[in-house]
Amino acid sequence: MKNQRIALKLLVFALLLAPISSLWAGETSALVMKYIENGLAILEDETLKGEDKKEERKEKLWAELTHVFNFNEMSQRALGQYWQKINPEEREEFIGLFTSILKNTYLGETGTYSAKKIVLVGEKERGKYATIQTNFILNTGKEAAVDFRMMSNDGKWKIYDVIIEGVSLVNNYRSQFRSILVKSPYPELVKLLKKKIAEG
User: How far is it, in rounded angstroms, from Cα 122 to Cα 7?
Assistant: First the structure.
C-alpha cells in the first residue's frame, strides 16, 4: 500500500494544495486547472473550517473532484485480465468498492501534506488520450515528475491514471489485486476490499 499512499498524497498536491507556476493553452490542462481552483475554494471556505465541519468539507471536496476521474476505466485497468472473467453485476460492485478504496485513502490524506510548487511541463494529446506532464517541487526541495493520463469519452476528458516518477498508480493496484487472484477466487478479493473499506 505504500506506493498507493504516496501516489494519493501527490494527487492531493496536484488537485488541491500546491500553487501553479505556469500554464499553457489546452483543453485538458485547463480542466486540471479548473479542479485545482474548485478544490482550493472548498478548502478555503470559512464556513467549512473547523473539526466539526471536517466530514462536510471532505464530502464536498470529494463530490467536486470525482468529476475529473474516470473510475470505471481505473477499475477496469486495475483489475486487468480478471475484468473479463466477472459478470456485469460484479463489475458494478467492483467499481463501487475500488472507488471507495480511493476515496478513503484520498480523503485521509487531504490537508495533511503540501507541495511548494507545481510546474506544468507539457501536454501531449493523441486521439482520445492525453498526458499532462507536471513537476512537483516539494517543501523539502526535492522534485518529482507526475503525469496525469486522461482519456476522452463522448468529448469529456477525465483522469484514468497518475504516473509518479514512472510508476503507475493503477498498475500498483493491479499488481496487488493480481497477487491475490492468482491464489484465491474473485470473491476473496471482494471480501478483502470490503474489509479494508470497513476499517476506513
Answer: 20
Distance, in Å, from the CA atom of 113 to the CA atom of 65, rounded to the nearest integer, reads: 17
* Cβ atoms 86, 94 nearer than 8 A: yes
From its phi and psi, is residue 109 left (phi > 0), alpha (psi between -120 and 50) or beta? Answer: alpha
Three-class DSSP category at 68: helix
Q: Which 3 state secondary structure label does DSSP give 118?
A: strand
The answer to whether 119 and 134 have CB atoms below 8 angstroms apart is yes
Single pTM value for the model? 0.79
Backbone angles phi, psi at 136, to 5 degrees: -90, 130
Confidence class of residue 29 from pLDDT cuts 50, 70 and 90? confident
70 closest CA partner among 184, 169, 151, 190: 151
Q: Both ends of the chain: CA-CA distance in Å?
A: 14
Whose CA is closest to 107, among 176, 18, 200, 173? 200
